[in-house]
Automatic annotation (TrEMBL):
The keyword Ribosomal protein does not apply. This is DNA topoisomerase (ATP-hydrolyzing). CDD domains: TopoII_Trans_DNA_gyrase (cd00822). Its EC number is 5.6.2.2.
């Protein structure tokens, strides 16, 4: 049940507005609630619905991580190229944690070994932050660029791409 619960919750995060319900009707999988003498026994069940999708996912990850957020607003990006049949969703927020927490998916499959979508995100984020820092005189001409590791410190991000013909490495599909 717990394995299915975790995966169904993840699927609901990745598919904004989709309700997924799970009910365990095995005889030994009942939950008893209530005051003594007024207990109610029913099948264990969970239902997941996330109207904001990846934004809700990032909030959840930071809550579980118990990390204080640096910026209250979660940055959200959605883009689609209908000609190439590819869609991208991204949500990210910086926290006071020392490590990054980046999760990537291709067609709702967790690509925990990364892939081109993660590499592209990392390169684009590093370039964008450095360009912004230089344009706003936060970095002077003589200063070195910020490193990707420095920029991503404390970052929680979820990247989800949907492709018509994904090319995964290996049988486990953990790298795009």
């Amino acid at each position: 049940y717990d394995t299915l619960r975790t995966r169904f919750q993840q699927m609901a995060f990745l598919n904004k507005g989709l309700r997924i319900s799970l009910r365990d009707e095995r005889p030994d999988a009942v939950v008893t609630e209530g005051e003594p003498g007024e207990e109610v026994t029913e099948a264990r069940h969970d239902s997941f619905l996330y109207e904001r999708g990846l934004v809700d996912y990032v909030e959840h990850l930071n809550r579980v991580r118990k990390a204080d957020v640096v910026n209250e607003e979660i940055i959200e990006v959605e883009s689609e190229d209908t000609e190439r049949k590819i869609a991208l969703e991204l949500a990210m927020q910086w926290t006071t944690a020392y490590t990054e927490n980046v999760f990537t998916y291709a067609n709702t499959i967790n690509t925990h070994e990364g892939g081109t979508h993660e590499e592209g995100f990392r390169a684009a984020l590093t370039t964008l932050v450095n360009r912004y820092a230089r344009a706003n005189n936060l970095l002077k001409e003589k200063d070195d660029n910020l490193t990707g590791d420095d920029i991503r410190e404390g970052l929680t991000a979820v990247i989800s791409v949907k492709l018509s013909e994904p090319q995964f490495e290996g049988q486990t599909k953990t790298k795009l």
